[in-house]
Amino acid sequence: MTASSRPALVEGLKSLADGYDLILCDVWGVLHNGVKAYEAAGDALTRFRQKGGRVVLVSNAPRPGSAVGTQLDGFKVPRTAYDAIVTSGDLTRLAIEERLDKVVNHIGPPRDMPLYNGLDVRFGSIEEADYVVCSGFDDDERETVENYRARLEAMHRRDLLMVCANPDLIVERGHMILPCAGTIALAYEEMGGTVFYAGKPHAPVYEKALAIASGLSHRSIPKERVLAVGDAIRTDIAGASGFGIDSLLIARGIHAEELGLHRGDLVSDHVQDWVDRQPVTPTAIMDVLAWGA
Question: Is the pLDDT reported for residue 177 higher than 90?
Fold first, then answer.
């Protein structure tokens, strides 16, 4: 990559807004950190919508979009910041609906059980199940993949499909970095298991979000007018690249420690150097999501 082709360092969304009709925005790491909301991010998206743009939040949360909306209300993220929410949980529900005649085994904490609300689902043990839905760790502050190794081996012996309701490997919660369902799914793949990933970086969640935005706009929105915003190279930026849309990397998110962006430090050329070494490249880089001067 030449210096001239490197992603631009931008101070605010204002400088990019005229180039796009739709923003597909990540939630955790961009709008909040699992403990508190980033007010500037909500303001930036609100301003983009005030200019006539559409915003669809695209999250790898293993819960329905309605549940994520309720969580955002609790963080006081304004409803004016977005038009709709699409989650990997929504895509997981579609996968479950296609298998209502099958027995499912669930891996994940009780807080993710809204995945099944309103669905006539039969639950069973690994020995009884036809497939497995993995939404995360039962206790993500204490457990590792090793706590699930025997369970995964039993699944593999029966050649069970795993539906991964959250493809993220890790997530930031306050100042902690915690493992997600994607870590368990990756371990299952590595032992030869089959996994269906319901969210980013895979195309179905982007297709769903684009279809919703086009419906709200009463017209087809071309991909060249779509910007994905997120803080994770592996999901947000890789997903955008694979789907053929531009992307904005929020540096002070999941990669902040890796980038050496300690509190008060500024995003600078060394972030571009780091991006040069990644398998995919964003269109632009911003410190935190904000509108700018």
Answer: no
